[in-house]
Amino acid sequence: MNYSEPQELSKIASLINAEVVGDATMKVKGQNEIHVVEEGDIVFVDHPKYYDTALKSAATVVLINKKVDCPEGKALLVVDDPFSAFNKLTKHFNPFIASSSTIDENAVIGEDTVIQPNVFIGPKVKIGKNCIIHPGVSIVGHATIGDNVIIHANVVIGSEAFYYKKRESGFDKLLTGGSVVIEDDVEIGGGSTVDRGVTGPTTIGLDTKIDNLCHIGHDTIIGKHCLIAAHTGVGGCSVIEDDVTIWGRVGVKSGVTIGAKAEILACSCVSKSLEGGKTYFGLVAQEKSDAWREMVAVRRLARQK
Question: For this UniProt entry, which residues form the secretion signal (predicted)?
Answer without folding.
Answer: none
